[in-house]
Structures are given as C-alpha cells and as structure tokens.
Amino acid sequence: MSKLPHIGTTIFTVMSQMATECNAINLSQGFPNFPVDKQLTDIVARLATQNVHQYAPMSGYPPLLEKISNLTQQSYQRVVNPKEDILITAGATEGIFATIQALVNANEEVIILDPSYDCYEAPILLCNAKPIRISLNDDYTPNWEKINEVANEKTKLIITNNPHNPTGKTWTESDFIQLEKLADSFPNLIVLSDEVYEYITFEQPHISIHHRPKLWNRSITVSSFGKSFHITGWKIGYVIAPEHLMKEIKKVHQFLVFSVNSISQIAISEYLDIVDVYSLGNFYQQKRDFFRNLLKETKLQLLPCEGTYFQVASYAGISNEDDLTFTKRLVTEFGVAAIPISIFYANEKDAKCIRFCFAKDDSTLIEAAERLMKL
Ligand code: PMP
Ligand code: GLN
C-alpha cells in the first residue's frame, strides 16, 4: 500500500513537461533562463581541476559555514555559531524534509498556510503527523484568527513562507507580532521559516525570523543559493537553527545525504566574497516591472507582487474554466506554460488565478506577452 496515496507528480514537473511537449514558453516552474554570473562559472572551472572532489564535512565546508554566519550578521544583525547552528543542505527542499523528519512526532500537528509550496506536506505525512492547512485571507495575509483557533497543545510546528510562493506576498511587522503571541501561548511550538526568496523583495525590505530574537530559540530558517545566485540546478541551500534543534536535524541529514556536493560548496564560499546579494531585489524588481507593463496590454488582471520572482494573474475576465483546465489550454493553444494556483490549496479553491515566473530574459517575456495578448 502506498505510504502517500494522494501525493502525485508535482505540478512543476507536469507543467515543464507539457511546455516541452508543446514547444511553449515555460513560465511555470520557477527557474531563471539567463546565464549564471561568469565570475561563478570561472570559479567552478578553476576548481574542477583541483583536489576538491571528495566528501565535504557532514555539516558543510567550514569556510562556507563561516561566510554564511557573516552574511547572516550583515543582513540581519544576528550572530550565529557557524559550527553548531548552520547546516548546508541539498537545496531548501532537503532542509525542510530533514527538519520535519527530525522534529515532528506521530500524531502531532503542523500548521501550513495555503496556498502553500508543495514540499511541506509529504514529510509531515511520513511522520504520521497531521498537516493542518489554513487558507490565507483573500489578500494573502495570514488569517491569525483562524490560526489561533486551530493551534493547540499538539501543534508542533507552524511553517511560514516569506516572501511567499506562489503569491509574492511578504509579511509585515504585525504578522511577526501575531506569531510571537502564538508562540507565547504554546511554549513547545516551533517555527519553520521558509525564506528562500529573502533577497528578492521590492518596495519593502525583507523582515526575517532572524530579526525576531524572541523566536530564535525555537525557529529554523531555510535559505536557498539556487534562488539567490540563479543556480536552481545546483540544489544547495542551508538551514539555521539553535543548537538543541540543529543537533536533531543533523541526525537526519547525515543519513539522508550525509553531506552536500563539495565543489559547489567551495565555489559558493569563494563567490560570497565578490557577489553583492543585495542587488538581487533591484534586479528582479526591474524584471517584475517590465513584465507587468507588458501584461497591461492583455485581459489578465495582475495581483500585487511584493517579492519572489512570481507574478499571479486573474483570468476571471477571460474564462470561466477552472484553473487547471485554463492552464492546460494556455499551454496547448497559446504556447505559454503557467502554474494553476488551486494546486497549492488542500481544498482546491478555484480563485481563477495562475502564476507566471518572470525570471526570464527580456525577449522571452516579450514573446510570452505577445502570445498572452491573443487571449
Ligand atoms: N521553498 C520555496 C517556497 C520554494 O519556492 C522552493 C523552490 N525553489 C523551495 C523551497 C525549494 O528550494 P530548493 O530548490 O533550494 O530546494
Ligand atoms: N520552487 C520552484 C517553483 O515554485 C519549483 C521547484 C521544483 O520544481 N521543485 O516553481
């Protein structure tokens, strides 16, 4: 019998495959299509001929851990111990999986806020624990009334994602105050904060769990170099957690992958000395504005986008179809692949919205907009 009977193939695989089959422009799965910084590929080319190809230490390459600690201090004024509090993971996905496996027991509950990224549920089910999926408000802010209503002594974890995939919404100061109040009411509650888009925010600076000392002792933050350096295929990220939680997470990590590929750890460690991560927000803000401007000429209605490289659009003015049907027609008849938003809900809420990834070169975005004009 299947251990995950209602988990299918992820929508990202399904839509990217359809995009290839239909020879469509792929704005579905979130990955950039422009070249990686030559400074980074030059580092890799140089390292490739050196003696860097054996196992990295289990927690990560020490100079990389050191640099992440410095980056965390520079970005968020938080001091973390590179030896004890940081773990290099095979993408944020492995960090999330290892964290959930390490900390959640059978019959405990985990709060997830829908629409939610799709890698949270399966590891919870594999723990024989219960995902409690609460929809965000219509403007995609957390519904604190509902969250407070469902939280109880069995709630082990709340998973937050800020900036938010798929909606591009970011958390405000008042959301963090609500989260701290919730934590005060439930001393055993742990926060798993998925911040893979931390450096991709626009008008407002990113507020991180790292800014909230009250939560440090009970929170895990997850970051992804895939997002920050346009290298999603490298599958490398990291987790920061207080030592007592990290000790448990490392126990799972060591038998899941043991350690992450060595050459990318060494390359990123060198690259961190020369790259300006703080320019990423501006880079993607220009892409967002460029894409939104192009889409103004279409019948799609654009929702606000405060961070990430995703733009949500409503097609309610165009069609009455459910979003999966509409998305499939969009790729087969119009040659543009997108992601239906209902897929990110437990109870498939059909808001007639789809998600586009705008991490693409300008000519791809222009061509996609021309096709969408025909809708
Ligand atoms: N969390 C969110 C919100 C994401 O969008 C993604 C996709 N990149 C991940 C986690 C997984 O990141 P990674 O590719 O580093 O595993
Ligand atoms: N995070 C990417 C997205 O939201 C997908 C990553 C994946 O394909 N697993 O599109």
From TrEMBL:
Entry GO CC: cytoplasm
Entry EC no(s): 2.6.1.88
GO MF: kynurenine-oxoglutarate transaminase activity; methionine-oxo-acid transaminase activity; pyridoxal phosphate binding
Keyword flag RNA-binding: no
Domain of life: Bacteria
InterPro entries in UniProt: Aminotransferase_I/II_large, Kynurenine-oxoglutarate_AT, PyrdxlP-dep_Trfase, PyrdxlP-dep_Trfase_major, PyrdxlP-dep_Trfase_small
SUPFAM superfamilies with a match to the protein in the record: PLP-dependent transferases
Entry-linked PANTHER family: FI04487P (PTHR43807:SF20)
Listed name of the protein: Methionine aminotransferase
